[in-house]
Amino acid sequence: MGRWQKIAIPFLGLVLAFWFYSARENFKPEMLKGKRVIVTGASTGIGEQMAYHLARMGAHVLITARTEAKLQKVVERCRELGAASARYISGTMEDMAFADHVVKEAGTLLGGLDMLILNHVGASYFGYYNGDVEHVRKLLEINFLSYVAMTTTALPMLKESKGSIVVVSSMAGKVGFPFTVPYSATKFALDGFFSSLRQEFTMQNVNVSITLCILGFIDTERAVRDAAGVLLSPPAPRAECALEIVRAGALRLRELYYRYGSTRLPLLLRDCAADLLDYLVRSRYRL
Ligand SMILES: NC(=O)c1ccc[n+]([C@@H]2O[C@H](COP(=O)([O-])OP(=O)(O)OC[C@H]3O[C@@H](n4cnc5c(N)ncnc54)[C@H](OP(=O)(O)O)[C@@H]3O)[C@@H](O)[C@H]2O)c1
Ligand SMILES: *[C@@H]1O[C@H](CO)[C@@H](O)[C@H](O)[C@H]1NC(C)=O
Description:
Layout: H1 3-25, E1 36-40, H2 45-56, E2 60-65, H3 68-81, E3 85-90, H4 96-110, E4 115-118, H5 133-161, E5 164-170, H6 181-203, E6 209-215, H7 221-227, H8 238-250, E7 255-258, H9 260-267, H10 274-283
Parallel strand pairs: 1-2, 1-4, 2-3, 4-5, 5-6, 6-7
Helix pairs in contact: 2-3, 2-8, 4-5, 5-6
The structure holds NADP nicotinamide-adenine-dinucleotide phosphate (NAP) and 2-acetamido-2-deoxy-beta-D-glucopyranose.
C-alpha cells in the first residue's frame, strides 16, 4: 500500500463517519410534529411515501398532484397514520396560477407554512433527444417554473416560520444523462436557481433553508417502467428515500445524496475526470 492510500483511506473513513453521524444522530421525528408541510407530486411514488412519513410524525400535510382519486386515498391513509391534518388540492403544475393557489391555500387553511417540498415531475420520454422544442418548454414549466412560482409565493410565510424549502432533483441534474435530455435540463435549472437563491439568503440573513436532493435510481413505478431493461443498476427503495428527504429537510442540510455510493461518490470525479464520469454513466446503460 502506497503512502497516499495510507493517509487517504483513514481520512475518507473519518469524513464518511462524521457525515453519517452528524446527519443521523440529530434527527428526531418530533421535529416534524405540528409542522405545516406542502408535498407536491404526492399522488404516487416518492411524494406519496413522504406524505406517509410526515403523517406518522404528526405533521399537517397538504398534498397536490393532478389525479384526485389517488390524492383522496393518500389523504385517507395519512389520517389513519396520525397526521395532525391531511388535505389535498388537485390540479396541474403546467398552470402557474395553480402553483400559486396551492401555496395560498396553505396560508388560508393552515395559517402559514413550515416546509415546502417540491417533488412533482411532468411526464417525458426515455430515449434519444427527439428535437421537440415545445416539449422542452412544457417540461421546464412543470419541473422548474412552477417550483420557482411556489417558492416565490411561499417566501413570506417561510421567512415568518424560519422554514425550509426541499427541492427534489436527480443525478441527472448534476451530470449529463443520456435518454433524459429535456428532464436533465430542467433539473440542472433547479440547481442554478436554488443554489443562487441560497447565496442571497445567506447575504440577507434570511433564515430559510434550501435542501437540494440528488437522487439515484429509485423503485417508483414510473422510473422502473421507463428504465427497466436499459439501466443496469438496481433501484433503491422509495420509502427509505422519502424518509431521507424529510430528514434532510428537517436538519436543514444543504444537499442530500441518496444513495450516497451511487451519487456523491461518482460525482467526486466531475471536476477532475469529467470524461471518466461520463463513461461510467454510459456504462450503466444497456442498449
Ligand atoms: N424515481 C427515480 O428513479 C428518480 C430518480 C431521480 C430523481 N427522482 C425525482 O424524484 C421526484 C419524484 O419522482 P417519482 O419517481 O416519485 O415520480 P412519479 O412516481 O412519476 O410521481 C410524479 C408525481 O408528480 C405528479 N405530476 C405529474 N405531472 C404533473 C403535473 N403536470 N402537475 C402536477 N403534478 C404532476 C404525479 O401525479 P399526477 O399524475 O396525479 O399528476 C405524481 O404524483 C421527481 O422530482 C423525480 O425527478 C426520481
Ligand atoms: C434558523 O432557524 C432555525 C430553525 O428555527 C434555528 O434552529 C437556527 O438557529 C436559526 N439560525 C439563525 C442563524 O438564526
